[in-house]
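Trying the structure run again after the queue cleared.
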Amino acid sequence: MARTSRWGKLPEPPRIFMPEVFDAWIYARLSMENSRSADSIETQIAFCTDYINVQNDLTCKGFFDDVGYTGTNMNRPRFSEMMAGILGGEIKCIVVKDLSRLGRTYIEVGELLFDTFLQFGVRFISINDNYDSFAPDAGRKKLLILVKNLKNNQYSKDLAQKVKSVVTINQKNGKLNGGVPPYGYWFTEDKQSYQVIPEAAEVVKNIFNLYNTGMGAGLICEYLNANSFPAPRYHYFLLGLQKESSRTRCQTWMPTTLFEILRNKTYTGCLVQGKYEKTADGKNSKIPRDRWIIHPDKHPAIISNELFNAAQNTLSNNGEKCKRLGVKHAENIFVGKTFCSRCNRAVVRDSHANKHSKKKIYPAYHCRYCLPELKRANNLKGKGMQLRLADLEAIVFNEIKRQVDVCLDMDALLKKAENSAHISNKRRELTSKREKLIKKSERAVDLITAAYTHHASGLLDENEFNAARIKFERDKQNAVTALAKVEEQILGYDTTKARESSYMVQFRKYQGIIQLDKDIINTLIKRIDITPLSNEVAITFNFKDSFGSFMGLLSESEVSEDVC
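Done. Tokens:
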């Protein structure tokens, strides 16, 4: 029976004839904490290359390298490429300098070595550990490798704890610890403090002054964008202080950025650190404000304490006002599903007040990047043009009901198509073809076995045996490949399986739908694209491939052409 691992489905080990020479791929990794070590990527690759060159059964095919990735992170770009090659059967031999280069997680690395690599017939060589998974003594060394793997895992945890302790001590001593400085500042030459960037500092002052006069965050953003003040990351990119990236390309001011500035005590001259800590899963978790490490007068202030405190009072008052006007919004059932059709960024839900009535705040969707830009380009005034939650729910609800109706019609037609003469004949024809291919595959295996027996008895010499083996293995592979295609075709003509597919089952399940919820959205919908300004909605459902194949089946059966 086939097994599964975190890397995918694991087939049963195939019967293969081992090649005399392996195409070996080198894997090298270097984490940030060892970036200045003598054990560089180049050194690792050269070390592995020298080893391969003196082995009679190895040739160097190429290498994969990941720089700046810790061994506890198994989601490394080049490592993932290597695993794709292994799962695709293209890579059969991996060479590393030592086991820790592959990774420092006990469970995942153990699964790779003694499960995934074994199942896919991959030869693994760790040079410094003197381990070759195809060597006769590999079984005896398994315990040693498990111990070293556990040691690497423990080393990673100890190192992380030591780094965390050093960072905490530096923070308590008032030393600056990395990160991009807040907008309006940049590092001093010795990178031990911040210095003011005058033009950006003036923008920060304007933000605080405008907000304290009662101007809302949205209007302030419109003012900053209209006057072409570059947003923080883009500002640093223009000054040549940061390299171009997806984050530095954002030129538009957003309310979230504005609120980050308004809440940042750094602008009063305080050094604020220890705001986040890493959780067990490697994510950043925000620490309560009363546990932050704050050192006053560590760098030049941009605003006064009075101006900062006034902004905090305004933020607090506006928050209370929103609570009085509105109610706590229900769960966002469309989270992770709504995107802008123009820029492909996520579209988020915001709260908006209704000026023309005393109704409470209503939730609505819009692209925070494209909508302000399009409004400026078209000289459009006012907030408007957001897609209200109620309107989006109505659109999605009606489209799901329509799809359910289509599914029910298709279900009835598939049941009718089951007795179609054309479908029955096609199934019979494919079943016969499958039986012939099975016999052809079995015949090739018998011929390979016979060739080996004749070679062992001296009836076939080495060259004759190799020629026969190659031909019969090719015949077997061709039969297996053709058989897989026929099996897929047979499945496509199985109307009973079609009616029991996820597509049909899920849509039948919601035929009595009266209200949307998160489970329904996650099950049926892949994504929802919203067009800025016009608020047109395009819904992409899951199971689209199934729908297309069912339509083809119905078309062949000629039972109906009206389903759409």
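The longest strand covers residues 58-67. Worth checking whether this holds up in the mutant runs.
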